[in-house]
Design goal:
Blueprint: E1 3-8, H1 16-28, E2 33-38, H2 44-51, E3 61-63, H3 67-73, H4 83-95, E4 101-104, E5 116-117, H5 124-128, H6 136-145, H7 150-155
Parallel strand pairs: 1-2, 1-4, 2-3, 4-5
């Protein structure tokens, strides 16, 4: 059976992108071995009640984020922070070779390989476009000035 890694910050209700994500997972689970990489551990009872799906942890593999690291990153008070997404991209690059395809219904993602992505509108590009092609030493300088978030460099976003 082909293996799919599905990457999404959260699939918890509500949300349009979350709706698309859970129904993608619902459709894929019948013919593929689906693993989910998500920041927020899924509460399938709530998800199924809200979206009308029938997802179950016995049919899916859940990749858990280190709880200490999760707490540390959640200390960031910036609501526009992309730390969670960057960390998921980093994990995805490490484990992605174990899967036949990587799928996401979250903002733009750099999987480190080819994948299938659905997103409503480009979100990350506007945040990083001016700095993405800077040499590494310039990125460090921009971090010190507060113009570039270190999470983009740590994720290996390209």
């Amino acid at each position: 059976m082909k293996k799919i890694l599905f990457v999404k910050t959260t699939i918890q209700p509500p949300g349009g992108g979350n709706t698309v994500a859970v129904w993608m997972i619902e459709a894929l689970k019948k013919e593929y071995s689906v693993s989910i990489l998500t920041w927020t551990p899924p509460d399938f009872k709530e998800i199924n009640r809200f979206y009308g799906t029938s997802l179950d942890s016995s049919e899916l593999t859940i990749n858990h984020i280190n709880p200490i690291l999760r707490r540390l990153i959640e200390l960031d008070p910036d609501p526009g922070s992309i730390q969670k997404t960057c960390y998921l991209m980093r994990v995805c690059k490490k484990i992605g070779k174990q899967y036949d395809v990587i799928v996401s219904a979250d903002n733009e993602m750099d999987f480190g390989c080819r994948g299938i992505q659905y997103f409503h509108y480009p979100y990350l590009y506007g945040k990083i476009q001016p700095d993405i092609d800077l040499p590494r030493h310039r990125k460090f300088w921009e971090i010190l000035k507060g113009n570039y978030r270190p999470w983009m460099m740590l994720s290996g976003f390209s």
